[in-house]
C-alpha cells in the first residue's frame, strides 16, 4: 500500500475537510508539491485530469497504515473501488515532486466525469485561483 496521498483541492489545509471527516490526526503534512496534470474549476471543487503538460499544485501527506483512512478518502472523492468506471473520481498512483525536488509516488484522485464547460485553472494552483483578484 502506498502510504502517501497528494491533495490539490478542498482536502488541503485551510478547508477543514480532513478534520470534519475525522482523518486529520491520521494524515501528516510532508510538503507542498506538484504533479503533471491539468486542473479545472468545477464550481464547488476542482478536478485534476491526467495530462502530458501542466502542473497541479497541492499538498503531500503521509497517511497511517490504516485502511479506514483510504476508505474515508474514497468516500469523500466518490471513488468506488468495485466500480471505478462509474466513480466521480478514480484513485491512481502518480509521481509527485516535492518542494525540495524529490519525486515520490502517492495516491491521487483524478476526475472521472465529463468536464462540460469547466474553466481550466492555468496556474494549476487551486488556492491561488480562489484568491480575490
Describe this structure in words.
With 133 residues, this protein is α+β, with helices and mostly antiparallel strands. It has a single domain (4-130), classed as Gamma-glutamyl cyclotransferase-like (Hypothetical upf0131 protein ytfp), CATH 3.10.490. Helix content is 16%, strand content 39%. The protein contains three helices and eight strands, in the order βαββββαβββα. The chain has helices at residues 17-21, 67-77, 126-130, and strands at 4-7, 27-36, 38-41, 46-49, 55-63, 89-98, 103-111, 119-120. The strands form two sheets. Strands 1-5-2-6-7 form a five-stranded antiparallel beta sheet, covered by helices on one side. Strands 4-3-8 form a three-stranded antiparallel beta sheet, with no helix packed on it. The longest helix is centred in the middle third of the chain and has 11 residues, at 67-77. It is globular, with a radius of gyration of 14 Å. 30% of the residues are buried. The mean pLDDT is 92.
